[in-house]
């Protein structure tokens, strides 16, 4: 098949990990007789430096016209002055809104050898397989912001439509998995959460085969570490999902491992690792590329409908971890390029 894939390396370790994923996608294309065309564009701090804006019009247009978009990460200390007028993260939020990708899938799978590096006891990690569905285009990240010398505010707003559409996605994923859905909110305090919970109860009637439960976000943060194997699909709003999924990465052994797929009603999906630009390790050939390579596997699955190819890439990642070929975040001594070479070898 022919596919046009936009690559947004971004900032920090973004270019290192996207280069690794592109190599893997090229290998998959070669092995299976596909024609993937890659086009790189600017997003984030690198775009601010050259274009004065975090999401240039040329990037926006290229993403809208693509079959799929693969992103590294944006941001870093160079662009983090609190008084800065434009910020790299605005570019990423703008891209998510432009593509309308309201459902951010963040699968948390535990690979036994990598998870041995987790601070959690191995018996707690046995059988962990969670799919987070994080609402991605609403809530406090997108609400009105105010600032005076004395005070600041960020509005958290959700419409019923925004809540319904992401809940339906989550129920559908739960139907195809173990038929349990945990909806996470802060309904004891927040009005948006009360609307979220009310909507979840109403939508649940459409999915009688799925068991719905509610969990407050603060206790969820604790349960994720004490009883992680109890969860199947977890659906939550934007900010809670951002925080809980970085916490859940601890179950995997490193923030460098979990991938993500952001999907909406439109044709273009956005794929990115869940981590940020890791300024502390940039340019050292130390970044774990597996979260981005696994995001490329999700791209094959959800945007290109190439399930066998997605599975082949996931199996190559798994075999690399089986062999203990770890970057330093997993306690290893292998470089980004050596880990990528090991995945490529597994793909042969
Ligand atoms: N999607 C995106 O583009 C995101 C961007 N950011 C931005 O990234 C910048 C840094 O944020 P932080 O809070 O430091 O979060 P971070 O996720 O960049 O890094 C947190 C820690 O995890 C490590 N880490 C992250 N990814 C890794 C990988 N692939 N391999 C090995 N180690 C890895 C880093 O070295 C660091 O010690 C900020 O400007 C932030 O706004 C943060 C999260 C998401
Ligand atoms: C806007 C991003 C920096 C938010 C984030 O941390 C994420 O999506 O994981
Ligand atoms: Mg995050």
From TrEMBL:
Cofactor binding description: Binds 1 Mg(2+) or Mn(2+) ion per subunit.
Keyword Disulfide bond applies: no
Top EC class, one word: oxidoreductase
Binding site for NAD(+): 76-89, 276-288
InterPro entries per the UniProt record, alphabetical: IsoCit/isopropylmalate_DH_CS (IPR019818), IsoPropMal-DH-like_dom (IPR024084), Isopropylmalate_DH (IPR004429)
Keywords, comma-separated and alphabetical: Amino-acid biosynthesis, Branched-chain amino acid biosynthesis, Cytoplasm, Leucine biosynthesis, Magnesium, Manganese, Metal-binding, NAD, Oxidoreductase
NCBIfam families in UniProt: leuB
Role played: Catalyzes the oxidation of 3-carboxy-2-hydroxy-4-methylpentanoate (3-isopropylmalate) to 3-carboxy-4-methyl-2-oxopentanoate. The product decarboxylates to 4-methyl-2 oxopentanoate.
Subunit structure: Homodimer.
Protein name: 3-isopropylmalate dehydrogenase
Source organism of this protein record: Pseudolysobacter antarcticus
């Amino acid at each position: 098949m022919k596919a046009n894939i936009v690559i947004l390396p971004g900032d920090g370790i973004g270019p290192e990990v996207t280069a690794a994923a592109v190599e893997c996608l090229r290998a998959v294309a070669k092995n299976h007789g596909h024609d993937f065309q890659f086009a790189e564009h600017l997003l984030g701090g690198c775009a601010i430096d050259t274009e004065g804006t975090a999401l240039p019009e040329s990037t926006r247009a290229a993403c809208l016209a693509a079959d799929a978009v693969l992103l590294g990460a944006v941001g870093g200390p160079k662009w983090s002055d609190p008084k800065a007028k434009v910020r790299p993260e605005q570019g990423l939020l703008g891209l998510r809104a432009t593509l309308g990708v309201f459902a951010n899938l963040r699968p948390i799978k535990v690979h036994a050898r990598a998870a041995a590096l987790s601070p959690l006891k191995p018996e707690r990690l046995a059988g962990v397989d969670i799919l987070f569905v994080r609402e991605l285009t609403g809530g406090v990240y997108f609400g009105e912001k105010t600032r005076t010398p004395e005070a600041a505010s960020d509005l958290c707003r959700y419409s019923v439509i925004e809540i319904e559409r992401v809940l339906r996605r989550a129920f559908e994923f739960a139907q195809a998995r173990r038929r349990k859905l945990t909806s996470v909110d802060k309904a004891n305090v927040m009005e948006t959460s009360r609307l979220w919970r009310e909507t979840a109860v109403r939508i649940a009637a459409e999915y009688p085969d799925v068991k719905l439960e509610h969990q407050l976000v603060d206790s969820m943060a604790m349960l994720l570490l004490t009883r992680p194997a109890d969860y199947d699909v977890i659906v939550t709003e934007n900010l809670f999902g951002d925080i809980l999924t970085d916490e859940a990465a601890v179950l995997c052994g490193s923030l460098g491992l979990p991938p993500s797929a952001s999907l909406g009603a439109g044709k273009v999906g956005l794929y990115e690792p869940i981590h940020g630009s890791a300024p502390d390790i940039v340019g050292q050939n130390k970044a774990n590329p597996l979260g981005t390579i696994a995001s490329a596997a999700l791209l094959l699955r959800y945007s290109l409908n190439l399930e066998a190819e997605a599975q082949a890439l996931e199996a190559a990642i798994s075999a690399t971890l089986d062999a203990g070929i770890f970057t330093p975040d997993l306690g290893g001594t292998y470089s980004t390029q050596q880990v990528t070479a090991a995945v490529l070898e597994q793909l042969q």
